[in-house]
Predict the structure.
Amino acid sequence: MPNEEAIIATKKTFRLLATTFVFCSLALSGWAQSVLSYDIDLIVDYDAGSFEGVAVIDYTNSTGMALSELFFRLYANDDGLYGTAFIQILDITIQTASSTFSLYLDETVVLVPLKEPLQPDELIEVTITFSGGTSQWPRNDRYGSIETGYGLLTKSSSALTLTTFYPMLAVYSDEGWALDPSTGFGDTLMGDTADYSVQVTTRAGPIPVTSGELVAVNPETDSTTYDFTATNARDFSLVLLEQDYIPIAAESDNAIIRTWFTPPHQLAGLLASEMALFSFQLFEELIGPCPYREIELVEVPLRSAAGVEFSGLILVGTQYAGQPNDLFFSIIISHEMAHQWFYAGVGNDVSEHPWLDESFATYLSYEFLAAYSNPSTAQMQLDTWRNAYRRAQQDWHDLSVSSPKYAFPDSSTYSSFVYSGGAAFLYDLHLELGDDAFYRSIQTYYSAMLYDMATPMDLIRSIEESCSCRIDELLSLYRIVP
Ligand SMILES: [Zn+2]
């Protein structure tokens, strides 16, 4: 039975949040573009799965209004997605003075009051000292599962997965600071694009695979320090691998795509490399240049997720690497590759408008199947998505493709509307507009919103301007509300 009460309860939670936190919600037109950089010094105890670090965050206030506080997100403290992993703040300094801070929403939100309001275009430097620990994936069992969490900040027998290991400045939107609580499923990570300089020190042995590029390696007696940079990245993510992983590199147009799979899954690594390269070239042709010239795909244990996207880094679930010839494996690879364009390149509020990136990632995996496999395989997959969407519509009359994530009662209903329905919407839009107008409108949207945060209106405006037409009928058929 559909659980209406769950939705009402979730909405209530959010309203409470909104009244608590919307201090700065004066309307702005569109998203404020931030000028942001992170300089992170991270020390990792690989064997213990723990870490400590200092993040120096330079932020120029581009919101157009004075800010009396800043908010940071500690995504790793969300038990639903991260299990027993955690991150804690040890100290915050603003410019050179020590600052107070308060924690909210199960310690996933940090409020830092400013002694003087930060004026428009004014630069502020915030230094945050932090530490944290990962959840433990059962040892000697790469196919095992952990009790809670997706495996996003996790120590397993083969790897140490370190995503969202640092405090991230919250996104400031036209509705104020984006501080939505987690729903326990789907993506929560949301950040403005930023330039990263990251130093990682760990014992010799484990191989770091990260967002961005490796620029220096400094071996010392008991440890090795690696220097990385990443430009225009939504996040900086890192996996430290045991040495038996097999790397495969594929190159195209000054870009390099690497896969990292374990020896039992060597075939999956080979196929993933081929499919990732094919996706990269196809999506560059259909959408526009990928924001990154280095992309890593890494096999790690995941629970409740087949793959997860980060800037220039993709996690692929071990449980699917055993069946690399399955259609679903190719959907995982192409879907997560597509997120480099939609999530990392063009950002969106993953809580309020999750369909903006998931519909594109799902639809582009259809385009991938049509080009890489064959059109009939792609059509069968599209029919599967369409059927899932229709069944969900019959059960849930108040939900639609464009509903916010917190409106959905569970992961499966969320996926049926946002992923499957979203892909069906884009497929029908393609049919209605024809090849030229469809791809022109998507390319216009992509280039206009690259490195920015897009809203549904940005997408609809791009489409209607490009086709010199209105798409009201299709929007209303899918009950998409901008
Ligand atoms: Zn996705």
User: Anything to note?
Assistant: The first helix runs from residue 4 to 21. Confidence is low (pLDDT under 50) at residues 1-34.
